[in-house]
Amino acid sequence: MAHLGSAFLCPRCPGIMEEVDKILIHSLRLSGTDIPEEVQSIREFTTELIVESVVRCLRVINPSVGANLSHVLPPGMSARFRIGMSLAQACQDLGYQGEVGYQTFLYSNEPEIRRLLLFLVEKFPRDASEDANQPVGKSATLHRAIAATIKGQLAIPWVPPACRTPGLQLLQGSRLMKQFQAQRLILPQESDPFIGKVSPERREFFVKFLPPVSAQLPQPATLVPSLLELNMAELSAAQEWDSEWKSQGLGSRMTPEEYRQWKYQRLHQRLLDQLRQASPRAGPSQQGTASRELLQLLETFGAGHEQAGALAKGSRFTHTQHLAYKQDAEIPTQVKTLPNSRTSEQEFRESQAAELENMESELSHLIAQIEELEGQISTLGLTLTQVEGEVRQQQMGVTEQEQVLRVKGCTVELLPDAENNMAKLQVLVESSAQRVIQLAAQWEKHRVPLIQEFRELKALHDSKELESSQRLLEIRELHERIRLAADEAKRKDDLYKQLLVEVESLPKDISRSAYTQRILEIVGNICKQKEEITKILHDTKELQKEINSLAGKLDRTFAVTDELVFKDAKRDEAVRKAYKYLAALHENCSQLIQTIEDTGTILREIRDLEEQIESETSKKTLSNLERILGDYRAIKQENISLLSRSRET
C-alpha cells in the first residue's frame, strides 16, 4: 500500500490511477461501504458516498470514535457543516498531515479525497502490524467490543432518575442489580486427587440422589455466582497444584500420585498428633499403640469423658452434699400456716422480711463454709502432691540403696577366698582386655573397606545428586518451554480461526491472484518509472556537466584570443576590426545562450502552469463555487425562516 500511496503523486499515469482506485474501492467495500457497481473511480464519488466511506473507515479503525458519527448526511446545511467538521477533527486525531476541513467532504476534489481515503485504508488494523504478544481471535474481538461498549456507556452523562429515558433507565438504573452471593455446589467426581477412585457408595449417591445444580440452590439468582465461584476455585486449585509440583514435587523425586499420597498421609499424621496431644489421660483400657486411627482416638475422647463423669458422680464432695440433702430430707419440715384473717398485712410483711433476712444470713454462712472447704481441699491437694513427690524420691533412694547393698553383699561373699577370687578377676579382666583388643583389630580390618566403600558410595551419591539436579533444571526448563509452546500454539490457533472467518466473509467471486497480479503490475510500472526518472536525472547531470565544461572552455578560449588580438590591434587596423568583430560575436553568443536559457525557463513555467490549470480543473472549482453559492442561499433561507419563527414566538 506504500507503493500505491506514492502512485497518486504522478498525475500523468491514468492507468495506474485506475488500478489504485479499483483496489481502494474494493477495500472500502470490505469495510462496509455501500458503493454501487457502476462506480469505478474516485472521480465518480458523490458527497454522500465520500462521507459514508470516511465514517465506515473510522468505525473500522476506532469503533468508539466512529460509533458517534452518522454515515448519512442530514438535509440541513448547518448539520452538514457540523458533520464535516467532526470528520475533519477525527482524521486529524488519527495523524493525517494534509489540509482537511469541512470543505474536503462537502466540496471535494479528486486528489484530496484519494489521498485521504488512502491514508484511512492504510490505518486499517492488520495482523502484520499488530504486536506479536497481542491476543487475537474471538476472545480479543469480544474484549474489544466489551471495552468499546463500556467506554461508550461511561461517556454518557449521568441523568437524574426522573429525567431518564427507558434506554438510560436500563443503563443507569439499579433496579435490575443483584447481590453477588455464591452457594456451595456439589458436582459428581470420577476420582479424588488424594484418595484415588471414588467409592461405590459415593458413586451411587452421585447417580441416584445428587440433585442437579439448579436444584441445589435455594434461590435461582445465586446460580451464576455459584458457578463462577466454583470455576474460580477449581482454577485456583489447579494453579496452586501446578506451582507446588514445579517447586516442591519435582524435587521430591516422586510421581504426582505418590506425592499426593505422601501429602495426604502427612496431613493425617499431623491431625492424629494434635488430637493425641489434646486428648485427656485415659486408663489402661483406653491407651493404645501410636498408630491408633482417628475414630479410635475419638472413641477415647468419649470414654475419657464418661469416666470423668463417673468419677465426678462418686467424688467425696458429691457424696457429702448428697448426704446433707438426704439428712435435710429426713428432717420433718415445719409447715407454717398462713396468717389468718385477723393478722394484719403489715405483720405478715414484717415476718416475711425477717424470714428472708434469716435465710440470706444462713446462705452467706453456707457460702463461707463452702469457700473454706474448697480452700482446705486445695491445700490438701497440694499437700498430697508434695507427699507423693517425697514418696517417689524415697522409693528412688531405696532402689539405689538396694543396688549398693546387692554389690556389697556380693563383695562380702567373695571375702573368705579373696586371693583366689582376685586372681580369677584379674584373669577375667585380662581376657576381657585381650578380647577387646582382638575385636578392635577385627573392627579395624572391617572398618577400612567399609570406609572406602562409604566414600565411594558418597561420591556416587553426590554425582547422582548433581546429575538429578541438572535433570531437574532441564525438566523445569522443558516445562517452561512446553508452556510457552502451548501459549504460542493457542495464539496461532486463534489467529488461524480469525483468518478463517475473514476468508469465509470475503466475496467468493473475487480472485485474489488477480488482485495480486494487478498490484505486482503496478509496482513493476512504478519501478520502471523510477528507473526512467533516474536515467533522465543522470543524463541531465551529464549534460549539465558538459555544458559547464564547454562554457568554461569557451571563456578560457575567448580570454586567450582577446589577449592575443588586443596586442596586435594597436599596430594593425585590420586586426583592430577583427577584435571588434570578435567582441561582437562573443556578445551575440552570450545573448543567444541567455535567450535559450530564458526559453527553457519559460517552457518549464508554461508546463507548470498547464499542470496547475489541469489540477485546478480537476478540483471542479466552478462546480464547487456554484454549490457553495447554493448552500449559501439555503443557509440564508434557513436563517430567515428561523428569524421569522423567533419573531412569531
Automatic annotation (TrEMBL):
One of its GO terms (molecular function) is cullin family protein binding. Residues 349-390 form a coiled coil. Residues 144-619 form the CCDC22 coiled-coil domain. The keyword Coiled coil applies. Pfam families: CCDC22_CC, CCDC22_N. One of its GO terms (biological process) is positive regulation of ubiquitin-dependent protein catabolic process. Residues 17-125 form the CCDC22 N-terminal domain. Keywords: Coiled coil. InterPro entries: CCDC22, CCDC22_CC, CCDC22_N. Belongs to the CCDC22 family. This is Coiled-coil domain-containing protein 22. It comes from Crotalus adamanteus (Eastern diamondback rattlesnake).
